[in-house]
Amino acid sequence: MSNTEPSSTEPSDPALPWWKTAVGYQIYPRSFCDTTGNGIGDLDGVRRHLDHIADLGVDALWLSPFFPSPMADYGYDVADFCGVDPLFGDLATFDALVAEAHGRGLRVIIDWVPNHTSDQHPWFVESRSSTDNPKRDWYHWRDPAPDGDAPNNWIESLTFGPAWTFDETTGQCYLHCFLSQQPDLNWGNPEVVAAMHDTLRFWLDRGVDGFRMDVVHLIGKDPALPDEPPDVAGLPHTILNDRPETHALLRELRTLLDSYDGDRMAVGEVYLLDTDLVASHYGNGDELHLCFNFPPLYAPFDADAWRTQISTTTAALGPRDAWPTWVLSNHDNPRHRTRYGNSEEVARAAAVLLLTIRGTPFLYAGEEVGMQDAVVAPEQVHDPAGRDGCRAPLPWTPEASHGWATDDTWLPWPPDAAAANAATQQDDPASMLSLYRTLLSLRRSTPALSQGDLALHLDTGPVLVFDRTDGPSTFTVAINMSGADTTTTAAGTLVLSSRAGGRSTFDGTLDAYEAVVLSAG
Ligand code: NOJ
């Protein structure tokens, strides 16, 4: 790429907590790399590719669940919060992974699933055994309605059935905001709070740097468990639950994390599709450090839509001095490469957006090589909620088994795996991987991009334009979000273009879906 060097090479402000200037990298262990030959990725597979991750230039791994689990929801149904499922390795493998990641300057964040357990978790096995079991109240049990219906009208979020299952053993129903194999814990019970705090301590003591907290906005519930009002009845409870009980619980979690050294961080999966409500889960700097915010993920690749997302986020988070996060892809949604129409140019421009916008970005492993969703035939479907496509195995090399121990993988390979892999792209300056590396290196060496303020230019038509400023240093990002060549009023010295061949000068014209970073200095 014939792009010029960044004009600023000062590192980020060391006084800031690491998670403010960091870039996260989500690993879905099952799909990352298999070292044993069972077609399922494992923690040794993550260890094998730590150099790739460090060379890419991200700062923190987020490992999706690797805990013992019957895998009804592929690990989000946890049967033991303090172990490693033998599919993925064992605690010694995990400890080695953390040590090796730390040795490369990478932080390690793990997924913590506080809202529910597996129905095979010993706590639930006990709870369901009798109405007077000491753990009965660790979950939400209610009598069925007099007509035999569920106790309330809540809908679960994976198959959209009732959020209640009748249990023959005791003739009562239990609540599950997800699958029936994922009963909700009752965080109104102090014993549950204490037991779940212990699970955090277990991993903090092992040296993890933080947690991605799964649907953590759900842990506080109205103890009356009332019906949803008629105007929202039929929507999944997940996107509706905004409760004061949760904020009190989050403050306790924050106190626990703050009692450890080293800025241990919590990023909450606050799946409320209203950015003001998401913002409230930062509290007054005393709840979650970061919250995922999903409306931008669901926005089209369109300049008006993104101006709205940026303004909405700034308006919601600004008054709280809360730091934003940005995510385009994860294990629950079609990858953005696929969502945006599989265009390489759009994916390249999206990379510039994600890595220059103000806030902490989280990449989803594979996006750095332009991975698309796999096409999953009906007989290959695993996930009851239809999310298999974005969980396809990551190809590392071009040949048939793509760097896995077998080519017989749990899900089919994504399209174009012979080219969309790290080995093929490694030394190609025009590759997606090279673009991600360049962007991440630029971000790391440019405080204006990693920690600076953002000023949105208005009325710029199909081009999204914003400035990032830190002290005297200003960078302007211009992203043509349309499929037609255009001109922009954005000006400055060219630092980087998303074009595969790069460009050496900038005269105010942008190719279709081209993004540029310009330096005012
Ligand atoms: C959100 C996770 O991202 C998703 O994969 C899971 O199914 C639900 N929470 C339930 O844990």
Beta-strand level of the residues, as a percent range?
Answer: 5-15%
Q: How many helices in DSSP terms?
A: 15
Name of the top-level CATH class of the domain at 122-175: Alpha Beta
Measured between the Cα atoms of the first and last residue, the distance is 21 Å
Summarize the structure in words.
With 521 residues, the protein is α/β, with parallel strands linked by helices. It is built from 15 helices and 18 strands. It has a domain at 122-175: Alpha-Beta Complex (Oligo-1,6-glucosidase, domain 2). The protein has an eight-stranded parallel sheet with strand order 9-8-7-3-2-1-11-10. A five-stranded antiparallel sheet has the order 12-13-14-18-16. Helix 6 (190-205) packs parallel to helix 7 and helix 12 runs parallel beside helix 14 (432-445). The longest helix is centred in the middle third of the chain and has 16 residues, at 190-205. Residues 1-9 have low confidence and may be disordered.
